[in-house]
Structure formats: C-alpha cells, structure tokens
Amino acid sequence: MVDISAAPPAPTGTTTDALVELRGVDKHFGALHVLQNIDLTVRRGEVVVIIGPSGSGKSTLCRTINRLETIDSGTIVLDGVPLPAEGRALARLRADVGMVFQSFNLFAHKTVLDNVVLGQVKAKGVKPAKAKEIALALLDRVGVRNQADKLPAQLSGGQQQRVAIARALAMQPKVMLFDEPTSALDPEMINEVLDVMVGLAKDGMTMIVVTHEMGFARRAANRVVFMDGGQIVEESDPETFFTAPKSERARDFLSKIL
Ligand code: ADP
Ligand code: MG
Predict the structure, then answer these.
(1) Which positions fall inside the ABC transporter domain (predicted)?
(2) pLDDT tens-digit map of 25-64
C-alpha cells in the first residue's frame, strides 16, 4: 500500500497543476471597469463556484476565458498556453473550453442528437458514425438518450439544458464553464441539471460555475469565489463562505439571497 502521507507536499506558488490561470486581468466597457485586476487560478479537477451580485462581472469573467470577450491587460493561460488573440490557435484553444449558458442555445431546427453530433464533425473532424456513438453515450450520461430524435422545443427546460451540457462535453473540453445554468429553469427542474453537474465534478471535470445554488456549492465546490464590483472580494471553501464570510460585502450579499 502506498503511504500518500509520505508524498512530498504539492508545491505552492507554482503553476504545475494550474489549468486556468488569470493574472492581473483588466477589462473596461467604455467607462465601466468591469474586471479589475483579476487573479484566479483553477487547478486541474477543481470545481470553483463564482458567486456575486448581478452586474459584478461574473459573466464577463467567464466570457474572457474562452475569448468571447477580449481583455485590456493581464494574461489568461489555459493548460500552460497563453490565450492567443485570434486565428486558428484561438479556435483550437476555445474548443478546450466548454460553455453552458443560462439560455440553452441549442440549434432549434436540429434534433437533440444532431445538436450533439454536429460540433464534433465540423470542428473536430470526427467521423459521423463515431460522433453519433459518442453523442448517444453522452445523452445517456445526462439522462436524455430517449429524447435523441426530438427537436429541442419538444423537451423541458431541464432536459434542454442537459442536452446543452452533453453538447459541450462532446467537444472533450479541458474545462467546463457554467454561467447560471439553472437560473432560467422552473424550480422542479433545477436539481436534475445540478445532479448532472455534480456527477461531472465527481468524475474529475475541471469546472467554473457561476451560480447562487448553495446546495450545489456545498456538494461539489472546492472553492467559492465572491465577486463584487468587478473585483474578487474573497475566496474560501464553501462551508466557510456560507457560514462565516470574511467581508462585509459578502455578508450583505448572502443576507439577501439566503
Ligand atoms: P454578472 O454576470 O455578474 O451579472 P456581467 O459580467 O454580465 O455581470 O456584467 C458586468 C457589468 O458589465 C454590468 O454592469 C453590465 O451591464 C456590463 N456589461 C456587460 N456586458 C456589456 C457589454 N457588452 N457592453 C457594455 N456593458 C456591458
Ligand atoms: Mg451574468
């Protein structure tokens, strides 16, 4: 038996296991300083929940990580490679970042199956038969394989969001970003989506999740990052954050949502 307690401690202050690393990231929208000197490291296999008031910059932060938004200064490094500004290198890196939005953004006129097949064939060059096999396995994993031949509109919101997760996973991303994935759902459908996300977390997926779902944070998050006014105000483990937040701003926010 291997005695892991004898293993050397993981090095700190190095980037060896950092999968996503933001250093000194700044962004403005005109006069609005929407991201202010953001430093954030997400390690391989880590689940980071980002929480904070509306307008604090959470979505913008997510969107910079796959370059849906440019940044004014600072660096974003993905698995050791600085995010390039454009071109094929950007397209390749972007494929490493799966994104799931509040609105499911499925292709409305394609079947559920095709929604999960198409990106694989077009962006990754996977053969259609293989892509279909992968898609069916992923739809099975998120519990909607029996809906494969339907159009998105024939599914419930919770089912559609699970298809969106399967579609993102089909690109074999290194990290998954979720931006308020359950905010548009009826309450009874929230858990079926969160359960899929908890499963992904348990399987070791690296995840950045913007959500106010404390249950999810408690079950799956390694770390909670609290943002306000374009800044990261505090970071801690979920239990500490929800029971004993350090900052006045976090206490004030939690008193409003709890
Ligand atoms: P959150 O996701 O935390 O609610 P956002 O990142 O969506 O916050 O927005 C942060 C701030 O940036 C808000 O004040 C918002 O109005 C503003 N903002 C977001 N996107 C744009 C844009 N494309 N142009 C101008 N302002 C924007
Ligand atoms: Mg948002």
Answers:
(1) 20-254
(2) 999 999 999 999 999 999 999 999 999 999 999 999 999 9
Q: Is 58 touching ligand 1 by the criterion CB < 6 Å? A: yes
Cβ atoms 181, 203 nearer than 8 A:
no
Secondary structure of residue 12 in the 3-state scheme: coil
Tokens representing residue 86 in the block: 């454009």
The ligand 1 atom at the shortest distance from the C-alpha of residue 57 is 6
What pLDDT sits at residue 14?
Answer: 44
Q: How far apart are CA 197 and CA 225, in angstroms?
A: 18
Phi, psi of 125 (to 5 degrees): 70, 25
Atom of ligand 1 nearest to the CA of 56: 3
- Residues 140-163 have pLDDT tens digits of 999 999 999 999 999 999 999 999
Per-residue pLDDT, 2: 41
Statement: residue 5 has pLDDT above 70:
no
> What tokens were used for 47?
């689940």
Tell me the β-bridge partners of 224.
49, 236
Contacting residues for 53 by C-beta, under 8 A, at least 6 apart: 228, 253
* Nearest alpha carbon, ligand 1 atom 26: 29
Place of tokens 């000197």: 37
Q: Is the CB of residue 56 below 6 angstroms from any atom belonging to ligand 1?
A: yes
Which CA distances in Å does 78 have to 64, 145, 182, 186? 12, 32, 26, 34
Across residues 227-246, what is the average pLDDT?
95
DSSP state of 211: -
- Could you give the 3-state DSSP secondary structure of residue 35? strand
Residue pair 116/172 in contact (Cβ under 8 Å)? The answer is no
